[in-house]
Amino acid sequence: MTGAKSWDKNLAGYIDHTTLSPTTTDADVQLVCEEAAHYGFAAVVVPPVYVLPAVNALTALNVSTPVCSVVSFPLGFHSAPAKVDEAKRIIDSGATEVDMMMNVGAFLAGYHMAVRAEVESVVGACKGRALVKLIIETAYLDEPGIVAATKIGVESGVDFVKTSTGFAPRGASENDVTLIKSACSDRVGIKAAGGIRDRQCARRLIEAGAARLGCSASVQVVSLEGS
């Protein structure tokens, strides 16, 4: 593994180091685990099929970096029982954090109670076993929608509200984070994701209120070389 010789160690502690590309291979998973162990990232985020390999890789590296995986990613269209089953399966494989995609279509159609019930069912399945981060996909929501979706997450008992998947037309903005923060309780954290490519952007999102950052360009983001 090669990478930055000097890096922002404080910033690294905010980052969920992510590999969720459709072309992700076992070699990619091994690399993000090695990078997480080296740089001190907050977690690694891998597709459900790679949870156990990631757990095994991190164990072999003798680090306690959490493994996170995704539910109904990136569109959110699975049924509630399917989302619950997927969450249980990735936890059984060793994940201790779950990033769940909200059904944005149902939310936009006004079925807020159904969306809340779905989120509550996943939170219940994960309770005591894994953190739950609700992805609301801010690119598709107006400002009142971002606030309303955040409130659904807070009232459903999620641990974090996450801005984006990285697959929508845009990723996180400082305004998204500010809006989510306005509707969050102190108990609920904010994860900003999508389009974070440099240290300056990452720092602005943290200053706006983000407690976690989802990045695939994590090594580039934390590098101090040439900055």
Key words describing this protein structure:
alpha/beta, TIM Barrel, 15% strand, eight-stranded parallel β-barrel, 227 residues
In short:
With 227 residues, the chain is of the alpha/beta class. It has helices at 9-12, 26-39, 51-60, 80-92, 104-108, 112-126, 143-156, 174-183, 199-208, 218-222; strands spanning 15-18, 43-45, 67-71, 97-101, 131-135, 160-162, 189-193, 212-215. The chain has a single domain, classed as Alpha-Beta Barrel (TIM Barrel), CATH 3.20.20.
Describe the structure.
The chain has a single domain, classed as TIM Barrel (Alpha-Beta Barrel), CATH 3.20.20. Helix content is 44%, strand content 15%. The chain is built from ten helices and eight strands. The chain has helices at 9-12, 26-39, 51-60, 80-92, 104-108, 112-126, 143-156, 174-183, 199-208, 218-222, and strands at 15-18, 43-45, 67-71, 97-101, 131-135, 160-162, 189-193, 212-215. An eight-stranded parallel barrel has the order 1-2-3-4-5-6-7-8, surrounded by seven helices. The chain is globular and about 50 Å long. The relative contact order is 0.16.
